[in-house]
């Protein structure tokens, strides 16, 4: 090889090395919405906040405001929620440098076993359009998303065909959030400590695309203690092979679970306020404290999702 060729070879090799180094440096860091924000976003338009604003002289208003309405509670998006509404909510949080928590709750045939919160998108195609729009509306802003509460626990009330459709929709949801919301930590709902055994739930999570997202959520809208929920979540994670992450809903678990009761039971209490850590990635208030589980228990006349100041006060006092 001539000197000219050797010189050119060295230059080319050096150029490739520099280019490779530059490309490596340019690669985006792994998403970490907790590090990218300063605390959780408080939804000033939540049901408790709206009720307090409308009833300033009610004797219950002060406690509901400080103990519930001023705390960071997840915002639920469902049938009728538009991409612009999602974008607006996430944008408000971003403008404060804070982390919003959202719930995607629009799977067709939702709450198949409970029967109190039925509804959802009208078809598989409609759901895919909706969840794609939902993910795109979050875009590259930091967020936490809980995907479809109860969706993987309801299988006993569904046909094989319905189960396969649901797994396909959930997988699509994880793919959309991964592709369109890169700074989001998304968690597939994994039921609660008393519903589906850990190994079975792990199999369902795998079939629903958990490899595409951060991990899974437990105890959403339920009452199991943080300790019981952590034990269950660790069992699910072990059955998954380890390496997954989880969050726990502590909104109403301060007094733990009342045996045999899930729908507006008496004697429950607010749990630990939202925070980073606490056993998993985060403890969150996913269910809105004071929102009814359905027309049952101590709120037989309050439809699911409707705020009740009586339920809220009971949770504050543990009665």
From TrEMBL:
PROSITE patterns: GLYCOSYL_HYDROL_F6_2, PROKAR_LIPOPROTEIN, TAT
This protein's UniProt keywords: Carbohydrate metabolism, Cellulose degradation, Disulfide bond, Glycosidase, Hydrolase, Polysaccharide degradation, Signal
Entry EC number(s): 3.2.1.-
Enzyme class, first EC level, given as a word: hydrolase
Single GO BP term: cellulose catabolic process
Pfam families assigned to the protein according to its UniProt record, in alphabetical order: Glyco_hydro_6
Molecular function GO labels: hydrolase activity, hydrolyzing O-glycosyl compounds
Keyword flag Hydrolase: yes
Binding site for substrate: 76, 195, 222, 262, 287
Leader sequence residues: 1-31
Gene3D superfamilies: 1, 4-beta cellobiohydrolase (3.20.20.40)
Entry annotation: catalytic residues: 150, 293
Protein family per UniProt: Belongs to the glycosyl hydrolase family 6.
Name the UniProt record assigns to this protein: Glucanase
Organism: Streptomyces tabacisoli
